[in-house]
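Lecture notes, part 5. Sequence design as translation. It can be helpful to think of inverse folding as translation between two languages: the language of shapes and the language of residues. The source text, in structure tokens, appears below.
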């Protein structure tokens, strides 16, 4: 029997993913029961769930510890690992954007490298590289909106949901990099070796997401 191991990002993403997985007929009650356990199995033993930090999901899947995982598109873009992106699950929708003061739509005169504050240095670097621009990355782990407000950066690259935080601080979206949502990703080798077990389950997931199941 092929056991399918799924890496789930702790928190809201896991909760929403579990809802879809449950609607595929898989018993996820062990994962839903509050505990400190990080590894769970369904009663049949066909599915194993590991709960990890969101940023670690692509690593567990790429390394083959997990056969599949559910993770945000932003995390996938930042990690840039060789994975098969199988499904857009439709929840967790937002946007990756460049934001700043309205007058920062153009590179400031006399500035050689635009200063970009972000939690996503790889995404920011790749975005500007595609435009042929070199930037000065300022990595921040807290409220990146503060960067332009105190003069630390010219713009930010960050996730935008409603845009209310930007508006409250006098900032606007200058460019949209990519739409974001939760994605189902699969290890490349697992899809070949465990394809007979994985593909029917992925089809079930797709049917649920599309409202056909």
């Amino acid at each position: 029997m092929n056991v399918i191991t799924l890496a789930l990002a702790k928190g809201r993403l896991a909760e929403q993913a579990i809802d879809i997985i449950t609607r595929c007929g898989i018993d996820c009650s062990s994962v839903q029961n509050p505990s400190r356990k990080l590894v769970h199995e369904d009663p049949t033993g066909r599915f194993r769930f590991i709960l990890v930090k969101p940023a670690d999901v692509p690593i567990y899947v790429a390394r083959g510890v997990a056969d599949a995982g559910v993770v945000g598109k932003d995390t996938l873009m930042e990690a840039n690992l060789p994975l098969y992106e199988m499904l857009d699950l439709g929840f967790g929708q937002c946007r990756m954007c460049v934001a700043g003061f309205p007058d920062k739509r153009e590179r400031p005169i006399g500035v050689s490298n635009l200063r970009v504050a972000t939690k996503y240095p790889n995404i920011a670097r790749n975005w500007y590289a595609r435009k042929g621009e070199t930037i000065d990355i300022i990595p921040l782990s807290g409220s990146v909106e503060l960067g332009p407000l105190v003069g630390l950066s010219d713009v930010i690259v960050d996730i935008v949901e409603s845009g209310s935080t930007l508006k409250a601080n006098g900032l606007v979206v200058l460019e949209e990099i990519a739409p974001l949502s939760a994605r189902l990703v699969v290890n490349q080798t697992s899809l070949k070796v465990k394809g007979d077990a994985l593909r029917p389950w992925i089809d079930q997931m797709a049917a649920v997401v599309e409202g056909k199941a």
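The translated text above is only one of many valid answers, since several sequences can fold into similar shapes. The longest strand covers residues 172-180.
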